[in-house]
Write a structure and sequence with these properties.
Length: 158
């Protein structure tokens, strides 16, 4: 449990590899801007009563091959979603559940080879230091993922 803190409201919370994190712990605080989690932490957050998802959500160092996003969580507040140094084989299939998502950042995720369907609200996608398969998949005009990103205004793939 969080103890000795003068405030339970934070701009940034970074919870990675916290195996015994329980929903009651997360319900003690509010994150205003950026929440960085491993996938197991997000699952606990989603079941915490009164939890809200801040505008920026980051999955960092996820070791699981797949993560799923809890269908009961409301992601309408999320504007930026990032995946950094994750071992997952694919991104979550239900990214369309982020109706106001503007920015998608994928960095150092070397096992991902293609993209799922993305929300039409997406304005920027950055794919950096990922697998060559993912880069090829996003290549215009005939990459497998190209139709999913063709509408995106700013694409930065390197």
């Amino acid at each position: 449990m969080l103890g000795g803190l003068s405030s339970h409201e934070f701009d940034l919370v970074h919870l990675v590899d916290v195996p015994k994190l329980i929903p009651e712990c997360i319900s003690q605080f509010r994150v205003n801007h950026i929440f960085q989690v491993s996938s197991s932490s997000l699952n606990n957050m989603s079941s915490a009563e009164g939890s809200t998802v801040p505008p920026s959500l980051s999955f960092d160092e996820c070791k699981e091959p797949f993560i799923s996003l809890d269908e009961s969580v409301n992601f309408t507040s999320v504007r930026t979603l990032s995946f950094r140094d994750c071992q997952m084989n694919s991104l979550p299939k239900n990214l369309k559940r982020f109706p106001n998502l503007r920015n998608l950042l994928i960095t150092c995720c070397r096992n991902i080879s293609c993209l799922p369907d993305l929300p039409p609200s997406l304005q920027q996608i950055c794919i950096w230091d990922c697998s060559e398969l993912l880069k090829e998949s996003c290549r215009a005009p005939d990459g497998e993922s190209w139709p999913k990103i063709a509408h995106i205004r700013w694409k930065n793939i390197r």
